[in-house]
Amino acid sequence: MFDYLQLKALATVVSEGGFERAAKVLNITQSAVSQRVRTLEEKIGQSLVIRSVPVEATPLGKRLLRHYAQVEMLEQELQAEMDGDDPSQPTTVSIAVNADTLATWFLPALSPLFNRRNWLMELIVDDESYTHNLLRNGDVVGCVTTTEEALPGCKSDPLGTMEYLCVATPEFRDRYFADGINKEALLAAPAVIFSTKDKLHHKFLKRYFDLDEVNIWQHTIPSSEGFLDAVRNHMGYGLVAHLQAQPLLETGVLVELTPGMRKEVPLYWQHWNIKAKQTTLIYRALIASSRQLLLSY
């Protein structure tokens, strides 16, 4: 059996990035925090943290933190039931989500649920190809991800497909693509991408035009709203999610540069495979909205 005071000390050290900060959060001495972590390591027989700046969990440490986070979530649910959803004891639910999902349908899908349940939402925004790493590390209870295969100890449920359209303003099109879209024109036109992690644009160019990412000019704007603003302000062309692009196409603010050439991104809700009210209700709320707004597989 684990000593959960020791696990809490480990979790606090990792989340705070060091023993001194953890001691302040836990309101105990730094030596007491170190002793709890050291005792846990001795019991396990392996190091659980890398004593760097900031402190990081080892692979085994991450597994223990995931276990601790799962137990903590179940305890929060039980406490909420015992307190009758006491508004002075809200439950915090941590979720990882990609920026385009957050900018379009995610909050409208979940806000009614969180308003009813007296839950607090803690969102971590990352590229949809990386959000599952936060679930693996125990940082979140669930994530919106492109990874279909469930992580160990987790479940993966399909949500639907986000479709991305290659768009620009009419002015940008007339300036850079007056003679149509081809390799030469794409090499001379600045693109807008979300971040260095985001490979969507490069996969699109490779698939349809056999262009490698090193050859293109690009603005990097790690904000879904800022990304769209950059395209709308003639800074470049980009791949925009259909939920954001469609209203602007209908009003003529943007034009689709490559009709028939689109990039589909399937999305999944991955969560811990335990019978927890939080993840079950969140999935129900997400799937109710995604069936209306996302494309079916």
TrEMBL record:
Keywords carried by this UniProt record: DNA-binding, Transcription, Transcription regulation
Residue ranges annotated for the HTH lysR-type domain, each copy included: 2-58
Transmembrane segments: none
UniProt keyword annotation of Phosphoprotein present: no
PROSITE patterns according to UniProt: HTH_LYSR
Keyword Iron-sulfur attached: no
Matching InterPro entries: ArgP (IPR017685), LTTR (IPR050176), LysR_HTH_N (IPR000847), LysR_subst-bd (IPR005119), WH-like_DNA-bd_sf (IPR036388), WH_DNA-bd_sf (IPR036390)
Domain of life: Bacteria
Family: Belongs to the LysR transcriptional regulatory family.
Protein name from the UniProt record: LysR family transcriptional regulator ArgP
